[in-house]
Amino acid sequence: MEMNDMVIVSVDDHICEPPNLFDNQLSGELLATAPKFLSDRNGKNFWSYQGYVRPSVGLNAVVGRPFDEYGMEPTSLDQLREGCYDVHARIDDMDVNGIAASMNFGNSISFDGQTFHRAPDKKLALRHMQAYNDWHYDEWCMAYPGRFIPIGVLPTWDMNATVAEIHRLARKGFRTVQMNENPTVQGLPSIHNEYWDPFFKAINDTDMTIALHIGSGNPAPHASMETPIEAWITTMPMSVAQGVADWLQLEELHQYPDMRIAISEGSIGWIPYFMERADFSNWRHKTWTHSRFQELKPSELLKRHFLHCYLWDPFGLQNLDVIGEDNVAYEVDYPHSDALWPDAPEYLWEHVKHLSDTVIDKVTHGNALRFFQFDDLFKNFGCEEVTVGALRAKAKAKGVDTTPRSSGGARPMADDRPVTSGDIMSMMKEQADAREAEPA
């Protein structure tokens, strides 16, 4: 196998939702009360819903900028590459990056439907969340069948509505849903509470995959407001370990042996030690802790149920024999600053070329298609049509431009000292305050 022969599926990318998000899904009062895409007096965009303002339309959506213009803004769509919010431009950007298929988390609703969870009128929030799911499937994913893995959001504040939505999404064609890895931050019971019993039953009755994205329930901690932001960025993937440890202790993993949980943007290099530590902790403590793990080891259950998604982890790929070659999938994280675009295949190939062709296929696309129950890629395309080489040839024929574009976006600070966690948090608070002060 050569680089251009790879078929790459990215299991973690993002959409910066367009202003017309709800226009084709709703009408009348439901459309009038849906989340609104607005602009402040300075021309900066934001989303507003039932008194909640989400100040950034493109948090860290800096793909295609020069490196020195990376940051946690932009604050308006005109600072973004069109592929962030336009599905046709997204396909072009996938083609030029050799990406055959992609799973896209939202931005305006957060990774767990936070926008709807915060809304005081939950009856409206449920209907608007359903409209979001329908838009995601009908207008984004089905614009190019086979190129996008649908992922739904759930009204987990209401378990009856959640179960109903899981079944509705399954009938529609979804095979994956997202939720907060730690629902206690939403004021809900922990995943170990019986509140979630109907949820797990519905997930398994419909053969759904659960995707847990880093940063939703257990955000990466930072030591202080004076800590350089680079330290915070460094620890972000590893912060997911807390959530993985919690989910690994879930009783339902023993009850439902086929349940699938994807850890989105968590990376893989830390997994061997995590497995080792989990097994050691169980060996030394399982008697007094009344552990569910008496014969089965935690590491064995981790391999049975979890998919670990990474974007840059050569160390992890050197240790696939420990992690499990069936438990790893690739992601680009378009359009965020970590995203390897438009040269993901070059970097990926350097990291996987020591593997056998069979294992390369698993890591680049096979595990993703299996774990997310996504057979639409090869139903709609022959393998030879979606290789890196074939997709890039299409992009070249269309003249897709990858020249870095200056956005003119605001910087978090003007002097030359390292940008700190406090600088970023202050910048985001100022943006939120400014939009909340805007007249309705």
Characteristic key phrases:
39% helix, single chain, 11% strand, 440 residues, 18 helices, five-stranded parallel beta sheet, TIM Barrel, alpha/beta, three-stranded parallel beta sheet
Could you estimate the helical fraction of the residues in percent?
25-40%
Q: Tell me the span between the first and last alpha carbons.
A: 58 Å
CATH T-level fold name: TIM Barrel
Strand order of the largest sheet: 7-8-9-10-11
Q: In the CATH hierarchy, what is the superfamily?
A: Metal-dependent hydrolases
Rg calculated over all Cα atoms? 21 Å
User: What is the molecular shape?
Assistant: globular
Sequence stretches where pLDDT stays below 50 over 5 or more residues: none
What is the C-level CATH assignment? Answer: Alpha Beta
Strand tally is 11
The string of secondary-structure elements, in order, is: EHEEEHEHHEHEHEHHHEHHEHHEHHHHH
Question: What is shown here, in short?
Answer:
The chain has helices at residues 28-32, 87-96, 114-117, 122-140, 159-172, 197-205, 229-235, 241-248, 252-255, 271-289, 298-305, 314-317, 320-323, 344-352, 357-371, 376-380, 388-398, 421-436, and strands at 8-14, 36-39, 45-49, 52-54, 99-105, 148-149, 176-179, 209-213, 260-264, 306-310, 328-330.
Your description of this structure?
With 440 residues, this protein is α/β, with parallel strands linked by helices. It is built from 18 helices and 11 strands. Helix 4 (122-140) runs parallel beside helix 5 and helix 5 (159-172) runs parallel beside helix 6 (197-205).
